Amino acid sequence: MTLQFRIADHGDFDGIWAVLMDGKAALGHLGIDQWQGAYPTQQIVRDDIEAGHSYVLEEDGEVVATTVIGFTGEPVYDSIEGAWLTTSDSRDPRYAVLHRVAVAQGHGGKGLGRNLLQSAEPVARQHGCESLRIETHPGNIPMLKLIERCGFSRCGIVHISHAEGASTDRVAFEKLL
Ligand SMILES: CC(C)(COP(=O)(O)OP(=O)(O)OC[C@H]1O[C@@H](n2cnc3c(N)ncnc32)[C@H](O)[C@@H]1OP(=O)(O)O)[C@@H](O)C(=O)NCCC(=O)NCCS
Question: Which residues form the N-acetyltransferase domain (predicted)?
């Protein structure tokens, strides 16, 4: 079995989309309102790829996990109930943000999520980032566990802008690089 973490290109769209739809279904089964509307849309995924921010983890040539590593800052992170570990904000971010993390159905629980988050660290370091930030729904126990197991610190609560009428609270984490 060969695992490869790499930047995505437009040919990866179908694989990424299938993994995100698996993630969406998994969240539905958890009974939480995260990703239960239109988000993440196909346009968002295409824009991620176009921007060069989309990454995939391939197992023997098949996309089995995906994440976005964003370097342009996240305006909603400028306000937090709590405190980030680092001080930069979205106008001049020195952090990278992980978004749209998902592992394919049937591939959970075998370390791919951990591989994905750990693989993002050298990419962010190469971009000169001092930290990684990530946030998830307070009811998303698998994701909360994954983030904590990867050594992130729980910093507080942020309010996302793409909740589509669902709850906006997200537990926010940061890890120094
Ligand atoms: C969250 C998700 C990415 C985890 O991926 P994964 O490949 O199953 O995670 P891993 O196998 O790497 O597990 C990493 C750690 O998280 C823990 N974990 C993972 N799933 C868990 C679960 N269902 N319950 C409790 N802990 C869990 C594991 O115990 C592991 O820690 P350990 O190795 O110390 O035991 C995956 O479940 C998923 O795609 N979920 C749907 C989409 C989603 O929620 N995306 C995030 C939106 S913010």
Answer: 3-177
